[in-house]
């Protein structure tokens, strides 16, 4: 009895240890998922804060100008010009930019020569608000006209413009506050409205962030987390021994082939040992071992194999004679790689890839031609 119970007790202890190890691995797996998600979320929040939520200063520029009246006198140097200028407010923010009335002033060598009103308006998110102003440029207020005479004689009149726009960038629009009728009621209503406005603003921020997060997670799931089947291909081949006989049709060729495993996933692809077989008209004429290895994330693992292609196993050589006489020897190759794609050292998924390639050997040039892999 003790001899019978000994192994049973040992098996129970081994099963308990194995069960605890599996639970520990699961906990570590979930912990790694949690850490990866936190890091990912932190990155997304930083991106959101540094792009969408970052308020940038709009740019106010004169874009172009045309002239209606153009009166420039050289003898008694003066000018009276009516200019139609197109100005633009470039808003690179993710919210509207509302600006108040302002004035744009044009100067000749530091002296004002004309001004115009810039009416209040709104530049939409990530766009340029364009509008025209009309300004009369008159030289009557210039203290000295000596430099003006020289500029008019040279044909070039130097002007500058200055203006300041004051406004607000509005992210995630909230409803405007209604006007109160009485002072006390107005104060209470204003307080309530401010609180409601803050709640609405916070709610809009949360909803916008949730939508943004959902989009990013979907994008992440459809790109990084999507497991694709690697591609296994013959890339090229050279020959060491090349013995082809036409009279008693046969061939004995030693081929050095370069193979490639193209892994488009964001994780490594580890594959096991396998065998690649070459065929002449569906009859095996040679094979080689493909040793286990690892294709790195988003890269191609390249390696060479040496295979002896021999025609001794062919049941019929009549077709072979015709092919050798034509100078073209058709071949095909087949293989299956079995392995696992590993994402973040934690997530693993089994993936098998099939090789199905066809090629021809040009007997005169001793070279591979028409290499096609499906």
Automatic annotation (TrEMBL):
**TM spans (from-to):** 30-53, 202-225
Q: Which InterPro entries has this protein been placed in?
A: Lea14-like_2, LEA_2
What region holds the Late embryogenesis abundant protein LEA-2 subgroup domain? 259-358
Write down what this protein is called: Late embryogenesis abundant protein LEA-2 subgroup domain-containing protein
UniProt keyword terms in alphabetical order: Membrane, Transmembrane, Transmembrane helix
């Amino acid at each position: 009895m003790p001899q019978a119970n000994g192994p049973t007790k040992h098996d129970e202890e081994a099963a308990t240890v194995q069960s605890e190890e599996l639970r520990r691995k699961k906990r570590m797996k979930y912990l790694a998922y949690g850490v990866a998600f936190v890091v990912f979320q932190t990155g997304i929040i930083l991106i959101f804060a540094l792009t969408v939520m970052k308020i940038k200063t709009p740019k106010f520029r004169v874009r172009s100008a045309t002239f209606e009246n153009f009166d420039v006198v050289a003898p008694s140097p003066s000018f009276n010009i009516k200019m139609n200028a197109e100005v633009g407010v470039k808003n690179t923010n993710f919210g509207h930019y509302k600006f108040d009335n302002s004035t744009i002033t044009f100067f000749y060598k530091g002296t004002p020569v004309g001004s115009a009103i810039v009416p209040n308006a709104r530049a939409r998110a990530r766009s340029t608000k364009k509008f025209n102003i009309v300004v009369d440029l008159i030289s009557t207020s210039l203290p000295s006209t000596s430099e003006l005479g020289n500029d008019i004689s040279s044909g070039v009149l130097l002007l500058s413009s200055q203006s300041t726009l004051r406004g607000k960038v509005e992210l995630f629009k909230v409803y405007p506050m209604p006007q109160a009728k009485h002072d006390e009621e107005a104060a209470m209503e204003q307080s309530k409205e401010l609180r409601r406005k803050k709640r609405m603003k916070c709610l809009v921020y949360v909803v916008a962030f949730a939508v943004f997060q959902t989009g990013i997670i979907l994008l992440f799931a459809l790109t990084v987390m999507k497991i694709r089947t690697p591609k296994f291909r013959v890339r090229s081949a050279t020959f060491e021994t090349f013995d082809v006989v036409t009279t008693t049709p046969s061939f004995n060729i030693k081929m050095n082939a370069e193979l490639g495993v193209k892994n488009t996933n964001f994780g490594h692809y580890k594959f096991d040992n396998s065998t690649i077989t070459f065929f002449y008209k569906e009859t095996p004429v040679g094979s080689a071992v493909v040793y286990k290895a690892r294709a790195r994330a988003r890269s191609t693992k390249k390696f060479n194999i040496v295979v002896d292609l021999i025609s001794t196993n062919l049941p019929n050589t009549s077709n072979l004679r015709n092919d050798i006489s034509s100078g073209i020897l058709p071949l095909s190759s087949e293989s299956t790689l079995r392995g696992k794609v590993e994402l973040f050292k934690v997530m693993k998924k089994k993936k098998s890839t099939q090789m199905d390639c066809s090629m021809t050997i040009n007997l005169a040039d001793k070279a591979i031609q028409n290499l096609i892999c499906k």
